[in-house]
Amino acid sequence: MELKFKEVDEITIVKLDAPELNHVVSHDFQRQIAPLFDEKKFNIALDMGNVDFMDSMGIGTLITLRNKLMKEKGTIAMFSLSDRVKKIIDIAALHKIFSIYDSENEAVEGLKQQLLS
């Protein structure tokens, strides 16, 4: 898995370039995300457009990332979810702890609003 990063205002967009967020790629995901904490980039929008499946390890990885960001007073959102991933998010009740958006633009605007409040 390769993550691609870009900055939009004070939000870091992280594009997941893998069809699955699972036990095989979770460690690699965490390793590639770690430098953002060193750089004090605590506001992240995950582009899930390429992801079609998540297992329990992938879900745990996202929850761990969220918890780390919250400790730093950061924010996290996801956008461009496939229908299959939306179902997984609903079943795991992740929509209660993650902001979910349809597009990058909506995610950036939503996170910017969270930062203001």
UniProtKB/TrEMBL annotation:
One of its GO terms (molecular function) is anti-sigma factor antagonist activity. Gene3D superfamilies: STAS domain. It comes from the Bacteria. Signal peptide: none annotated. It holds the Pfam family STAS. InterPro entries: Anti-sigma_ant, STAS_dom, STAS_dom_sf. Residues 20-111 form the STAS domain. PANTHER family: ANTI-SIGMA FACTOR ANTAGONIST TM_1081-RELATED-RELATED. Belongs to the anti-sigma-factor antagonist family. This is Anti-sigma factor antagonist.
